[in-house]
Amino acid sequence: MQNFKAYVLIFLLIPFSMFAEDGSQLWLRFPNVKNGISADKIISKGNNPTIEIAKNELTNFWQGQTVELRTDKALKNQKDGYTIKSSSDKITISSSKEIGLLYGVYHILRLQQTKSNINNLNITEKPSYDVRILNHWDNLDGTIERGYAGYSLWKWEDLPNKISPRYKEYARANASIGINSVVLNNVNASPNILRKDYLDKVKVLADIFRPYGIKVYLSVNFASPKVLSGLENSDPLNKNVQKWWKDKASEIYQTIPDFGGFLVKANSEGQPGPQDYGRTHADGANMMADALKPYGGNIMWRAFVYSPSKEDRAKQAYLEFVPLDGKFRDNVIVQIKNGPIDFQPREAFNPLFGALKKTPEMVEFQITQEYLGFSNHLAFLAPLFKEVLDSDTYSDGKGSTIAKLTDGTLRKNKFTAISAVANIGEDKNWTGHHFAQANWYAFGRLAWNHSLSSEQIADEWIKMTFTDNQDFVKPVKDIMLTSRESVVDYMMPLGLHHIFASGHHYGPEPWGDYKGGRPDWSPVYYHQANEKGIGFDRTKSGSNAVSQYFPPLDELYGNIKTTPENLILWFHHVPWDYKMKDGKMLWEELAYKYDSGVKNVREYQKTWDKMQTYVDSERFAHVQSRLKIQTKDAVWWKDACLLYFQQFSKQPIPYDIERPVHELEDLKKIKLNMGHHN
Ligand code: BDP
After folding, report:
1. The domain that contains 655 carries what CATH number?
2. Where do the Glycosyl hydrolase family 67 catalytic domain residues begin and end (predicted)?
3. Are the CB atoms for 637 and 507 separated by under 8 Å?
4. Given 68, 114, 418, 588, which residue has the most CB atoms within 10 angstroms?
5. Mind listing the pLDDT tens digit for each residue in 96-118?
6. Which listed residue (370, 427, 509, 520) is catalytic?
7. Is the pLDDT of residue 405 over 80?
8. Phi/psi zone of residue 517: left (φ > 0), alpha (ψ -120 to 50 degrees), beta?
9. Distance, CA 299 to ligand 1 centroid (Å)?
């Protein structure tokens, strides 16, 4: 009898374990679809590898009517876009390009999976940006800078001979959300990536990605000519150096005819660059641009530059780049981090946006959560991306949003682009946290259409990744949509920034004062807490960073009364007893913010636990356990920051919020061994 019970138990468990899910299928799960339509229900002329992929997706997953795939040259000003029209017996997808047809197929599959209406379709889609690019910070030794999902997907040791099946899966996932370019390697680039043996490896990846509409770019090291070929220097005005880059370009394009171009981090955080030879960023970028020009390649030149100086770090990119406006070749685009410091949970937008009038600009976001709890914290980033894209810079008058400045609406550039640092690694679920997949998804969707709302993106993603059951969708969407603000609240509310532990950027270290090191890597440099108050004075009486913003923002941010409170400590040094809009003192407001961040995460735990019946056990348990870490970390942040700042405010922690559970002295002793420099 006992044995019988055991058999029954095993029997019952088998189906569940078969359905256990590891997240490897991302948002392309189609759990209830055994197969799609038969091949004779697809009408298409001609053959092409991209069309073949589109057909396969349809025969595997599409369960609706006949689909016609039609290339139509008349649609060419829609770029990679497409139209979808349906009649009672047929859906017609048209595009000027094969890749547009594949995108259209993913569109109807998304409609099917999210149970949206598929009758009487009359859809026209055109991407917001020409180049929708992921930046991988992957090193050639397989590690990833700021990567929290295991080692790199790219197996450089095995390439070009051994090919991981995940290369294709990766390309498919990107194509399904419209991502059409990738930078394979870290911006802190090893010169070796340009060696012939590495280019042969890169070629293999480019060949796999091509049918999915994806172009390969590489990060390059400015000193490559000297390091790789022993040239006397890497001075951009040296004829030998110029020739070296031209020869290298010709070699690359012989290997990879549709190579996208270079991403360059120069004269930043110790990387070599044109300034090593007294030249400018424009001299450096133009030399490379000239080399790639004959082949149609682009240069993405990063504006993330700052040096240990007396100048407010938030001002430095603007100061270096504005004088160079108009001096760049037309195949150069300046890649600008969304904020002027460094991917903080919330920053004011980077004042360089709009300040370059004659030079194309693009945004760099960070999908990998370097400053948002790695892959341990659930933080849905679409609201952050949207907040930045929708920010009005006033550069060309009211309505000059970052989206309009970069998508070609306000500035007619040769091409437009948007980028983000990827969070992808070799983990089975690709991104470490199941919900971090949503950030990859959200970036792709917004790069395609920046007017989508965060809510719509979350809604689609949840339905495709988990279930369309509203009892699950609604509460989980609420978690996602509030999650980024919760992280801001328990880490750095009211515009606080960069008070992270040094190096790894995981936990709190507001006491960090790296005397003898770089002041601009020290938390105390950023929060400026003292007996009077807290915050970085960027007004006229301080660093005057506000002057880099266009009117009326310079005045608005320069005045404590008109500065949005969620950035008040970004722009002002605010007295502890300053009265906030809700009537609370700054100190109290700060305490309640920290507390509300913690409370929210506790609510997320409760909500998630109730979701158990709607989710497979594997993903349920994984997310549940990550939420425990997130809650513990949130309490750690709150205690560390409040106990530390309390030494200056000398005020009690408001009595109606939870008491700290840590001693400040103990928290100061925590040293996480997570490596890295700044
Ligand atoms: C910072 C990272 C560092 C990167 C650098 C960059 O801490 O690892 O190399 O930015 O973007 O966010 O170049």
Report:
1. 3.90.1330.10
2. 113-430
3. yes
4. 418
5. 999 999 999 999 999 999 999 99
6. 370
7. yes
8. beta
9. 19
